[in-house]
Amino acid sequence: MTHDSERGAAAVEFAILLPLLLMLVLGTIEFGRAYNAQITLTNAARDGVRVMAIANDPAGAKTAAINAAASVSSIPASDISLSTTACSTGNQVTLTIKYNLSTITGIAGPFPLTGRGVMLCGG
To answer: pLDDT tens, 99-112?
Structure first.
C-alpha cells in the first residue's frame, strides 16, 4: 500500500524535473528548426548561384534563391546579395542569403543565419 507521503514526494520530484525536461524538448525542437533552416538557406544559395553562373542573370538568380527558400520563409530580394552583377567565364560568383530565424518559444533568438553558394562562372 502506498502512503500519502510517498505520493507527495513523487509529485515534488516531478515538479522539480518538469522544467528541465521541457527545456530539453523545446531546445531540441528549436535546434532542429534552426538546422533545417540553415540547410534550406544553403541549398537555396546554391540554386541561385547556379542560375547566375550559367545564365548570367542576377534577377533570375535571386528569384531562384527565393523560390528555393520558400519552405523557410518569404525572403525579400534585399536580403540576397551577389558578389558581381556580370559573371565572366573563369571567375567565381558568390550568392549570400541573410535571414533572422525567430524562435517558437521566444526564450532565445532571433538567430542570424547565412546561406552562401559559390560557383565558377560559365559552368
So the answer is: 999 998 888 879 99
